[in-house]
């Protein structure tokens, strides 16, 4: 191999210097400018030593040369000998090239800087902000709910990091979410799996971090990789909430994220909500109200004046909040036995419209003894449920349903999915039958004898894209509703959908409950980002063990058609070992957004419940 020459070394050094960016180029341009000015001044002193007129020395000549280099048009006003004019013209011509190159370099440098800012590559300097890592449809729900939660806080910030253009993210969020009030939105472009990009988010000063499960194949692997990147960071680690799509990946994600991470199993949560909604009409609306920041929210209160009271007595302790359970050192318990004594190390779990609105009641509750009704609970009987369509969470839904129903219950699965009815061994209470059926076909649906079932569950078929799957679900719901009207049949209908925008269209079908799985998970992630201690509360609510939410006939608690206070309803439920948290008006059951459900009414609020109305309680089955 030949030896490297001096020319090659010089050229290599020059190339490396030129590649260092705008600053290096301007440095070379400045050096060339100095050389040009010195040469022009030297030639002027040699060829025309007495020019221009009034020159006082070499310094003055250097100044004249500098002005001609920076302002080439100055040569038009020069006077003197041919030698002087020639030198000044050459200097001005060289200056013209130098100034042109300088303007071009500055323009290009500024453009690169603006492009960098546009791409969102600068490090944020916020503190106490909420960081969202990744992008999916859930981001709209999370940002909207966090903005509501921070509505009374000045200077709150939500920072989003995703592999999308910064301006595109901001535009999409403005279009879907609208006005964020006092909350500022900061978007950055980058890969949440890269530590260098995570450094842009100033995580050491963040309040909490939300990791989204992206759309596409194997999203949980992406979430686990983000958790690994977060765990490998040095410095302070803020609390992390992450959403997973499959229960099978929980163990791996927990190992990757460590103790600072709370994991939300999307499939598990959605499956539990679908099952409970199928059995209790309005359950999805109640859960949505509890999960969002619009109406009743769940709070933890330190029991100062309630220490020593029993749980039953504490039900009347708050005028503007509904007590639903206790957070004890041993864990969460909702609707505990009424004689449970509240201790100093317990926290009272309440539903309230705002944390600042939780006020103790003054005096004894206003209870109308004459309006109280004592009714026996109806015994559980075998049920018939129809499941239309099939997807990846159908097996989980059936197993949860098996834990609710009485022995001897029947589940009919109607779908043309190749995996329909598979992997269902070990069921205790359900007998499962599978039929091949196109659930959008009217004649196929009529052949199922839908009127023989008490409950109908319509799942989203995972063989199709979400938008098309929602369209097929709407077709099925319309067919079922028309069949009900034509045949006079009565059965509850619960449907699963992907897109929140399709809820308005689905309301035309008057389905009893519509579960938007992505919206539910987004709401839950937003709640846990604000208060991780609520994870056990919502986990308890969605579990088949212990107390759950039930809408029960109002006539089982108070005399219908009679004006009573909500305190009377609470007392009636207390005597049954239940916790009343609201009611549902049958007259408004089809009116969005609450569909007749009222959570946490004031204890002194007068109301008249009719025979078709329901009292919403926490109770054992």
Automatic annotation (TrEMBL):
<feature type="transmembrane region" description="Helical">
    <location>
        <begin position="54"/>
        <end position="70"/>
    </location>
</feature>
<keyword id="KW-0812">Transmembrane</keyword>
<dbReference type="InterPro" id="IPR006037">
    <property type="entry name" value="RCK_C"/>
</dbReference>
<keyword id="KW-1133">Transmembrane helix</keyword>
<dbReference type="InterPro" id="IPR010420">
    <property type="entry name" value="CASTOR/POLLUX/SYM8_dom"/>
</dbReference>
<protein>
    <submittedName>
        <fullName>Lipoprotein</fullName>
    </submittedName>
</protein>
<dbReference type="Pfam" id="PF06241">
    <property type="entry name" value="Castor_Poll_mid"/>
</dbReference>
<keyword id="KW-0406">Ion transport</keyword>
<keyword id="KW-0407">Ion channel</keyword>
<feature type="domain" description="RCK C-terminal">
    <location>
        <begin position="288"/>
        <end position="366"/>
    </location>
</feature>
<keyword id="KW-0813">Transport</keyword>
<keyword id="KW-0472">Membrane</keyword>
<feature type="transmembrane region" description="Helical">
    <location>
        <begin position="82"/>
        <end position="106"/>
    </location>
</feature>
<dbReference type="InterPro" id="IPR044849">
    <property type="entry name" value="CASTOR/POLLUX/SYM8-like"/>
</dbReference>
<dbReference type="InterPro" id="IPR036721">
    <property type="entry name" value="RCK_C_sf"/>
</dbReference>
<keyword id="KW-0449">Lipoprotein</keyword>
<feature type="transmembrane region" description="Helical">
    <location>
        <begin position="21"/>
        <end position="48"/>
    </location>
</feature>
<dbReference type="InterPro" id="IPR036291">
    <property type="entry name" value="NAD(P)-bd_dom_sf"/>
</dbReference>
